[in-house]
Every structure is written in structure tokens, then in C-alpha cells.
Amino acid sequence: MINCLILNFAFYFFGLILQGIPSDSDSLKLKKDHLDLADTLILDKRNDFIKQSLFTNSSDSTLLEMALETLAFSEYLGYQKGALMANERLGLIYQYRFSNPYIALDYYLQALSISESNPAVREFKWGIQGNIGTIYYEQEEYEKGLEIFKEVASNSRKLELTAILNIGNIYGSLQKNDSAIFYFEKALEYEQIKSNPVQLANLYSNLSLIYVQSNQLENALETAERSLALVDSLEIDFVKPTAYANSAMAFLENGDLNKAEQMALMSLEYSQKQENLFIQKSAWGTLADIYEARGKYKESLDAYKNFATLKDSLTNQNRRVEVSRKQMAFDFEKERAQARVDIERQKLVRNFTLGLAILIGLILLIGGYLYKRRRDSLAKIKDAEFKTLVSETELKALRSQMNPHFIFNSLNSIGDYILKNDSDSAQDYLSKFGKLIRIVLENSGQEEITLREDVEFLELYLQIESKRQPHRFSYSIRFAENIDLDAILVPPMLLQPFIENAIWHAFPENGERGRIEISFEVKGENLLCIVEDNGIGRAKSSNSIGKKSMGVAITENRIKILNEKSGTQGSLQIIDKTLDSGTKVEIMLPLHLAY
Amino acid sequence: MDITIAIVEDEQHCTDRILAFLKPYSEKINTICFSSVDDAKDGLEQIHPDIVFLDVMIGGKTGFDLLSQLSFSDFCLIFTTSYEQYALDAFRFSAIDYLLKPIDREDFEKAIEKAFDQIGQRQLKERIDVLLSHLSQTPTTKKISLPSKDGFIFLAIEDILRCEADINYTHIFTLDGKKHTVSKTLKYFEGLLSDFGFFRIHNSHLINLKCVNGYSKSGYVTLINNLVLEISVRRKEAFSKAIGGFLQS
User: Which of A415, A504, A436 is nearest to A466 (CA)?
Assistant: First the structure.
């Protein structure tokens, strides 16, 4: 035998509905302009009609057109079930009528996607899956087919039988005859199959082929005849080519060559009428075997040539299908990859943009903060500098006020001296005062001088004044042991006004010889300067009636501003010694060291 | 031998006052007075006095004009001035004596006694050069005259590395490693030299900022002879400011 043919025809995944379907298509006509929702019923009927016609009269060329129209109407109405069914019908038409599994798969996938995105029509999913399974089966991708059918069988009771039948087919194709027979016989036990002659005929036909394969020739003959009986009596055109081809094989194997040839020719005739190349090819192959067995070698060769030609063209077609399928898969994968890349890129861009925005925001925020802080601190520094400048200016002004004040008082002293003395000693006195004024001018230009410089000035001043009034007062300047004259800095001429007050106002003329005691002492962080006299006290002195000495007022202000400027607690206290007589002035200055 | 004393002074009462102060010495001195620079120039050239009292402002001219015209300088010079602050510093740099008007009797006596002592050792020419260089507007190498036991020492200010206090004396160290001791306080030199890039870093140290090699924030300064000196706590801030400003200029 040159050809071992396998002709297991796939089991369709739709049982036929034999009642309620109009026998002609005229009554199902619809006009697009007049569509309304009630027409969904008609769309359902159209779908049923298409299926019916496909299996009873598969060469009807108007079916494709009708199915396309139904799909268009359904989509126009948004009728999901109608669209799903129409897609499925189109898939069936392409699969069985035009032997084009590629386009068929397209339609099935359309239908599948409708069913998956729409819970209302989800139940149809398994039927479509089943159809896709049959395509895998026809494309000899048995593993995939098996997987789908098993899934369908376990998920849909309605389609369990059909799935089992197909599983049987696949095992048959895989030459696992025992498994195939097991599943087919199991299928025969179902009630459903008894009411479905098409399926039953198909089942017998396929079973006979498996029996042939497993060399159970009697069983083969018997089942072949059962399938023929059903096909012939019920005029099931659709199954005829297969049934004839399979029974031809059974007759051939049983040696009934006449019957075999007759069957093969009939199979050829029907398959040509239905333009089914698969079956034509098988019929030719069977014929070649039959002719060979009969010794008609020329006919056998011709048949074989036809067989070979068809096989080639089918293989090509298959290959094309394969290529297309792979192309499709590839395109799909590519698109998905592209989409994934796009999404990734968009995500990346979005993340990047977001990150950048956050970064810029942060930078702006930090920059703003730093700028503000810097501006504030600059403003603060400027403010502080300005305040310092103001207080320095004020202090300088006050120091400068001391100059004329001192000079006028000096002129008083000089005048007083000249009245009492000769002109020579007046000259000497004048030159001493000149020296003193020079020192005052020099010191008053400086913010701070050493305590030694200030004391030298005070000493000269006291010397000169005591020379003017030799018996009026005596004086002493004392330093505590912790006084370093060269290291301690003091504002110039802070004590002079108080000494001057004592000299001019504390001691009455012709009174007892007074005493002025000046002392310096470091107390903690402060320098304590004391000017003390044993005079008549402020209350009795002529100066104190209602007005303060100019020099004292200036000094008070100077201490106040010094405190403001450096945040210190310098103080001035003028104490009237009521028990003793006299006045005590205490000036407390923050200790300021030069080195 | 009588000592000749010249008084160059355009105000009569000032001349009178000096003459009055000189009265106690009348036995051993001759005095001669001039009231203008031109008169004085000719007169001084003729008599070659031993001591000159010279006013800074004489009419429209100055005593410095007179000094620069004199062909001789072997005399003892004492300036008299009222309040020319710019001149005072120059006098101090050149160690030339001066009296401030109105002249104090005690100051005058000190000055004239010193002048009598110094008639033998004058070096006045050099001191006048120092004086004039300090008064000149054109930049020259400024010097300082330091009185010592045997006359005067003249140092270029830029050659001074540092000064160190030793109670009422000051040791002056020069770049060539020499040490000169002068009987003046460090404060005196601080006053003179702070305009020449010197800074008091410590109670007893005055340094030339040009000779600073480096300093640490912890309060030490290294001089170019690798001597490390302490900066006192209260001077640190002022020192960084001063050295910063010094490096910029």
C-alpha cells in the first residue's frame, strides 16, 4: 500500500438545529436603513440559517455574503451576540468551505475576543475554542489541539461530546489507535450523539478508519456501512465525501475492490463538488491503491499523479498557512514587543519627567531657601554693620563734644590762674594746658585707648588743676593688683567729667583741704572705676541745682550707646555719701583687653 | 668754649619764650635769631651753630626747605611746632628732637640737656635724610633712625622682621639676623610702623606682615625665618583681617 491515508474529519462544534429554521433565505432579508433592535431576532435566525446551510448544502456560494452582511448589521446595531456568531460562521465558512484556516482563525479570534470582553456571551467561548482546536488539528499541531479539546471537554458539558470526538480523532492521527477507539466508543455512549445523525455518521466513518489502521477489518467494514447508511438515508452531503472515502478504505482492506472503487469515485465526486482538496487528495490516493490492486496500473499511475499534485498544492497551501501563521505570530509578537517598548519608554519618559520636575522643584526650593537665608544673613550683617556705624558715629560725636567742653573749661582754669599769678608762671601753666588739650584731641579720635594712656591724661589734668589751687585738694590714683595698665582698653575721657565736677564744685573756697581718690579694679568680667571725693556732696554744690554737668550727661550717653553697640551691661552710678560727706561715682565697664 | 645756639622762628613771642628758657644757661651759650628761611640760610652757613631750634612753618616756607639747602649738618637740631601731625611722625622716624608749642618748660629742659650731651655725636646728615625721605611724596625706601649707645643706627623699614617688647626696651630683629635694642616701648614702634605693614600680634610682638610665611587658625604665625610666634586670642580676628587685606593689596 503506497498510501496510508488518514482522513479523520474534524467534528464541528455545533449541533444542528433542525426545527424553526426557514428553508430559504428570502424571509431573512434585512434593510440596513430599517434596522431596529427587534431585528436581533432575525440576525440570530440568519446565523442559524447559515450554519444549517453550511452543513447541508456546503457549496452554497451565497452564504459568505450573507454572513458578512449579518456581521455588518450586528456591529451596526452593537449586537454582540450577533457579531460573535457571524464571526464564528465566517470562520466555519473559511475553514470548511474554502479550506483557508488562516482567515478562519482570524474570524475565530475575533469571535473569541468578543466573547471574552463581554460577560453576556461568555458561554460561547468554548464553542469557538473548539473550532480553533479543529484548526490546530487540521494543521497537524496535535499537542495544541489536544490541550484545547481537553480544556473544552472539562469546561463545557454541552460540548464535552464533540471535544471527546476530536480527542479521538487526534489520537487516531497520532496512530494511537487504542486511545482513539477508547474515546470514540466512549462518545457512542453519550445520549446526545443519538439525536445527531451528522455527528454519528462522522463518528462511524472515523471509527472505521481507525479500525482499518489497527487492522480490525470486520469492525471497520461494519462501522463503514453504518456511516454510509446514515449518510445516504439522511442525505448528509457534508459528511458524504469523508464517509465514502473512509468506507472505500474499509472495502479496499477487506478485498471488496468493486465497492471500494465505487466509494472512492463517489467520494471524489462529492469532494470535487464541494471543492474540498483534502478529501480529493485522499480519494485519489485510495483510488491509486485500488487500481494497483486491480492491476490497472495506468489508472493507478494517473490517480497517483493527481494525488501527488493535490498533495503538493496542499502542502504548499499548508506551508503558506504555516508561513502566514508564523508571520502573524511574529507580527503579533513584534507589535506586542513594540507596544511594551512604547509603554516602557512612555513610563520611562514619564518617570524621567516626573523625576526631573521633582529635582528642579527641589533645586528651586533649596536655591530659594539658600538665597533667602543668604539674603537674610546679609541683611542682618548689613543691619548690624549699620547699627555699629551709627553707634560709632554717635560715640565719635560725643567724644568730639568733649573737646570744646574741655577747652572752655580749660580756658576758665587758665583765666583763673592768670588772675592769681605772674605772667611767667601763667605761660608755664598755659603750655601745660596746651599739652593736655593735645592729648585730648589725640585720644578723642580713638575709640579705645589703653588704661595707661587714660590715666596719664588724668594725672596730668589733676596735676595742672592742683597747681591752680594748691591747697584746695589732694588726689591719689590707686590700682588693684589685677590691673594691667597696658592691656586694659577703655573709652577715652570717661572719668574726666566727674573729676572735673569734684574739683570745681565739691570743695568750697577757704574750706578744708579736700581729697579726690581715684581707683581701678577688675571685678570678674568688668572694670570698676571709682571717683570719690569727700566734698560737700551734690545737694549742696552750686552746680547741682536742676542741671547736670554737660560732661556727665555726655558720659551717661556714651555708656548707654556702648552697651547697645556691644550688648554689654556697663553702668554709671552716682552715689551721694550721706553718712560721710561727698560723692562717689562708680563706672562699671566690660573688661576689654588689648592682647 | 661757648655753645652757639640758633633760633629760626617767625613769631617773636615764641623766640622770646625760647630765649627765656635759655636764660639759665647764658654763661656758656651765644644765641642768634632768624625770622625767615632766607636769612637763616645765609646766617647759618656763616656761623655754623652747634644747636638749632627750627620752626616747621616759617612765613611761606618750611624748616625742611632750609634743611635741604644747608651745606653742613654737624649741628644738633630741635624742631619746634604747633600741630603739624604729618611732621611729628617724620621726626620720630628720624629720631630728631622736637618741641610742641606752647613749649613746656620741663620738655624744653630735657631737650636742651640732651642737645648739650649730643654735641659730640651727631650723625645729623643721615637723620635729616631719613626725615626728608619721610616727608617726600615720591616713593623711596623709607628708613628709621634708632638711637643707640654709640649714636644712631639706620634701618630700612622693609628690612625689619619683627620687634619684641622687653619692658621699656624694644628688641628690633632685622632680616639679616641682627638684633638692635632701643630704649623705647613697643607701643612707640607700633604707632610708627603700623602704617608700614606691621601688626601687633601679641603684647610683646610686633611683626612685619611681609615676612609672614603662614599662620594657623589655632593662633600661631610662622615667619620666613621659621620662627613661630603666638597670636594672642584677642588679636586673632584682627590679624586674619589684616593679613587678608595685606595679601590683597
Answer: A504
CA distance A593 to chain B (A): 7
- Provide the pLDDT for residue A48: 81
Distance CA B98, CA A146 (A): 129
Kindly state the percentage of chain B with pLDDT values over 90: 40
ipTM of the complex: 0.77
CA-closest candidate to residue A237, choices A208, A279, A209, A207: A279
Start-to-end Cα distance in chain B: 56
B163: confidence class by pLDDT, cuts 50, 70, 90: very high
Neighbouring residues of A562: CB distance < 8 A, sequence distance ≥ 6: A391, A395, A491, A568, A570, A589
Instruction: Indicate yes or no: CB of A486 within 8 angstroms of CB of B235.
Output: no
Instruction: Check CB contact under 8 Å for B102 and A427.
Output: yes
Please report residues of B whose CB lies closer than 8 A to that of A427. 17, 102
pTM of the predicted model, to two decimals?
A: 0.53
The domain segmentation of chain A, as residue ranges, is 196-295, 391-590
Which DSSP helix (H) or strand (E) runs through A498?
helix A496-501
What end-to-end distance do the CA atoms of chain A give, in Å? 126
Residue A402 host element (H or E): helix A297-420
Q: Which CATH number fits domain A196-295: 1.10.760.10, 3.30.559.10, 1.25.40.10, 3.30.497.10?
A: 1.25.40.10
> Which chain A residue has the Cα nearest residue B99?
A435
Say whether residue A370 is in contact with chain B using an 8 A CB cutoff.
Answer: no
Question: Which of B23, B167, B187, B201 would you mutate first to test chain A, the one with the most A CBs within 10 A?
Answer: B187
Interface contact A428-B105, CB threshold 8 A: yes
Grid coordinates representing A105 are: 482563525
